[in-house]
Amino acid sequence: MEVEHMKGGLRSRSYNLGFKRTKVREENDEEEEPLSPMARMFHQPESNIYIVIIVGYKRLIDPDVYKTNLTETFLKHPRFSCLQVADEKSGGEVKWVKTNVDINQHVKVPMVDPYMASPDKFVEDYVANLSKTRMSMSLPMWDFHILNLKTSDAESTVVVRVHHSLADGTSLMALLLSCSDALPSFPAMKKKPISRGAGWFPIWFWKSWSVLLLMWNTLVDIWMCVATTYFLKDTQTPLKAPSSDVAFTPRRIVRRTLSLDDVKLVKNATHTTVNDVVLAMTQAGLSRYLNRKY
Fold first, then answer.
1. Rounded to whole angstroms, how far apart are CA atoms 230 and 235?
2. Domain range for residue 46?
């Protein structure tokens, strides 16, 4: 029932989300496909989300060369050269419609003072201001912002903003890496040696115990979720969203540089992954800060 209600809400509200309404040309029907339910969900007022990626470069960027490279690589992906159009012939169903992309409308090169006192703070403020603005749906919903400004980590910075209906963060990172000259090399996964000496009973016992632990932890998580929903209240912290519409409230992205060698040292000591270590550090840092202050 919940899924059916969500689908109905998405379909019935499709005209009120700012989609361009037009009659789609019949000769291009084979090139068009409807937006997925997830893509349509990201246009709802309560979940209108943009992805922001900050890329640092080792040298200053020539905007004309950068635009040419984007045209030859980034725009090859069909999603970034399509509009999201509500087709009146199909009852307002939103479809991807191919369009001609003017790269100059998507690549912004603001004039910046290269000798400013705090370039890192400027980049943070620039990204925070981007979170206050909407993208026009008359264009493919992405843009690049070239900041030829030396920061503590890079000679120049590019801020990429993409609407979440086009892609997720992981696929965007993979797409940006594929646009570079040399792709990074990833180490091959090491296979754990299979022990031939162990009998069937230890293996059976370990698997049974793992299943029981999984079931117990699942029940505990469900109970905690229900208890939190009905009996507990979140502490008022800056991380808790206000009751008003938060789709375009200003946000600030604060970045910190970590030593990858230190992260790998912890990863090897705990037999986990780099993602596990970074996520655990972030969660532990936020928890300690919020518990101490609030």
1. 15
2. 2-178
Please report whether residue 140 resides in a domain.
yes
- Assess whether 164 carries a catalytic annotation: yes
Q: Which of 43, 163, 164, 271 is catalytic?
A: 164
Residue 46 in tokens:
């309560």
- Global pTM exceeds 0.85: no
Give a yes or no: residue 247 inside a domain: no
Here the CATH number for the domain that contains residue 73 is 3.30.559.10
Task: Give the Cα separation of 164 and 49 in Å (integer).
Answer: 6
What angle is formed at CA 280 by the lines to CA 279 and CA 286, rounded to 5 degrees? 90
Domain contains 76 = yes
- Number of domains forming the structure of the chain: 1
Mean pLDDT of successive 10-residue stretches along the chain, which has 294 residues: 35 44 46 79 76 90 93 87 81 84 94 90 90 85 94 92 86 78 59 62 87 94 87 76 59 78 93 91 89 84
Residue pair 83/22 in contact (Cβ under 8 Å)? The answer is no
Contact partners, residue 152, CB within 8 Å, separation at least 6: 119, 120, 257
Separation CA 162–CA 77 (nearest Å): 13
Residue 122 belongs to a domain: yes
